Amino acid sequence: MTTAKSKATKTKVKIVSPDLGHHATDVGLEFSKETEAKIKRILKRYPEDKAQSAVIPVLRLAQDEFGGWLSTSAMQLTAERLGLPYIRVYEVATFYTMFNLKPVGKYHLQVCTNCSCMIRGSDKIVEAVKDFTGISKNGEMSDDSLFTLTEVECLGACVEAPMMQVNNGYYTKLDKEKTLQILDALKKGEEVETATPTTPMKDGY
Ligand code: FES
Q: In whole angstroms, what is the distance from residue 41 CA to residue 93 CA?
């Protein structure tokens, strides 16, 4: 069996399974040097024959690197890099909601509408997002491709509800006005300070 260690630094992939509804236009995809260095660090945490353990962090890297979502070829690249059958990567990517299986906007707005956030007014946050972006329903991308709205379950920041996650950052203690300010700043390309990084390890990996 091929191990992760024996794989070349760069791996080119071809579509070998049917397109599962994604835009698999990215044949020849490869990880950047920076991402490859992170993958090597991740793999050092596990025994050589346990590359399956690295699927989640490597999929996160793939998602970050390839536009915020996982195309068929991004998942195939991940499988190739880890020396795993494609299905072992696909089953993980399709199980966890943090992985996007279709394109998302530059800013993926995940608004928590679970109990604590709902009690503290998450409906107003969703309304603000829809008003600002023109998005009419959950899961939709704005016409300018800047924003995607996804209503999600608890993201573990209940104490500072209501909240939303934008890409990898949390924005908490929101109200409609604050949400609109954040969206406006993002649209202008300005940095908006987040509450708590959601990536607990050094540089996220
Ligand atoms: S209920 Fe919204 S973060 Fe927990």
A: 21
β strands within the chain, DSSP E: 107-112, 147-152, 164-166, 169-171
Is the pLDDT score of 15 beyond 70? no
Top mutation candidate among 155, 196, 198 for ligand 1, by most atoms within 8 Å of CB? 155
Alpha carbon of 14 to those of 50, 56, 70, 159, 204: distances in Å?
Answer: 24, 22, 15, 46, 29
Check if 198 has its Cβ closer than 6 Å to any atom of ligand 1.
no
Rounded distance from Cα 120 to ligand 1 centre (Å): 10
Tens digits of residue pLDDT in 45-104: 999 889 999 999 999 999 999 999 999 999 999 999 999 999 999 999 999 988 999 999
CA distance 142 to 114: 23
Report which of 192, 189, 148, 187 is spatially closest to residue 172, judged by C-alpha positions: 192
Domains of the chain: 12-95 (1.10.10), 107-187 (3.40.30.10)
Element (H, E) at 80: helix 72-82
